[in-house]
Amino acid sequence: MTGATDVTGTTDVTGTASATSTTWWRRPSARVWGGVAVAAVVLFGLAPALLSDFRLNLLAKFLCLAMVAVGIGLAWGRGGMLVLGQGVFFGIGGYLMAMHMKLADAGPGGVPDFMLLYGDGVVPGWWEPFRDPVVTVLAILLLPAGVATLLGLAVFRRRVRGAYFAILSQALAAAFAILLVGQQKVTGGTNGLNGFRSFFGFDLADPVNKRMLYFIAAGVLIAMVVVVRLLMHSRYGELLVAVRDQENRVRFLGYDPANVKVVAYAVAACFAGIGGALFAPVVGIISPADVGVIPSIGFLVGVAIGGRATLLGPVLGAVAVSWAETGLSEQFPSFWTYFQGALFILVVAFLPQGFASLGGLWRRRRGASDGASTDPSAGTHPPADAPGPDAPAPDAPDADASRTAGRHA
Predict the structure, then answer these.
(1) Residue 202 dihedral angles phi and psi, to the nearest 5°
(2) How many CB atoms lie under 10 A from the CB of residue 36?
(3) What is the spatial distance between Cα 86 and Cα 219, in angstroms, rounded to a whole number?
(4) Which 3 state secondary structure label does DSSP give 193?
């Protein structure tokens, strides 16, 4: 029986139960699931009740960007891969959804309006499969992950990592944006694809359907957080951290670090593609300006500010940075970029682990203060029964007793 024993020899059988009942919420898993529950209440309850339709649509946009941040948190925070090209996968998902919506608005056998303006009025053959909503959804889920898998296998098996991988992924984002601009007849060029009227048969001009898009974005984001949580605390998650910290040791143990990295990279790409696919109907446009180098760096900034090594930090950072960008651009149209840069510098300089580390710092400081806040008289006056400085030392145990204690220990 486990419990606390007092000086009289009695045992407190309720000690363990009471300690357990008062400290269960201190466990990391309880705090994480509690945070997810609070986020669900805020997103599904408070936000729709308190925000106007315009602000709620803005929040839906920020949630789409946060989906990209969740994947970056897995690939960069847990896997150590500095991904500076997530705009590519965000753009793939966004353009696939935009293609379907433009074809649906044109009707069966119809031609999107921008093709009549910029092109010859003929729909390219590789556009035709995206008239089917099922094909579109499957492509959004599989194509970004497939591209990331092929790219990851080609790069990680050659042991390209660190700054070299970051530069390569950033160059890929720049090339993708240039490609979109150059193919004006099929991508809309710098104007992108816009003017969507329906989303899988739902009229986007109806405020009710706009709210439906918000709820879809909120639900998908929470599902992504749950998936990443399960991955982080699985055997694969431990292996991913091991590859980040000691890649050569993992290789010597018989694992292929390239395959471990590819999985995280593909999951992050899939999340980015889903975020882009929802971004297009929420915002009403997808263009090269949303998928190039600058947006890719913006995704990373939000993750760094929120805390890349945590579960909810990337989400909170992405939403906070996007919300601050919108608010500052409304109040200070000419200076808001300076505020954003100053915020990033302050976080990197004073909070390298992001705002999510504030809770841990506060707990450690409180624990240190609790340990230091003992009775000041303790330690200055010895107990009444303590031996004085001139008291003889107690008899030392003999050698046989010491050897016996050692064997039992």
Answers:
(1) -95, 135
(2) 16
(3) 22
(4) strand
| pLDDT tens string 235-244 | 999 999 999 9
Pairing of strands 198-199, 202-203: antiparallel
**Spans of all domains in the chain:** 33-358
Tokens representing residue 136 in the block? 């579109």
**pLDDT band, very low/low/confident/very high, at 277 (cuts 50, 70, 90):** very high
Closest CA to 245 of 72, 80, 71, 83: 80
Using DSSP's 3-state secondary structure scheme, residue 69 falls into helix
Three-state DSSP class for 5? strand
pLDDT at 371: 62
Q: Which residue, 261, 295, 291, 285, is CA-closest to 273?
A: 291
Q: What is the mean pLDDT of the chain?
A: 82
Strands 193-194 and 285-286: antiparallel
Measured from the Cβ of residue 126, the count of other Cβ atoms closer than 10 Å reads: 9
C-alpha–C-alpha distance, residues 222 and 35, integer Å: 11
Helix axes 257-283, 207-232, angle to 10 degrees: 170
* Beta-carbon count within 10 A of 341 CB: 11
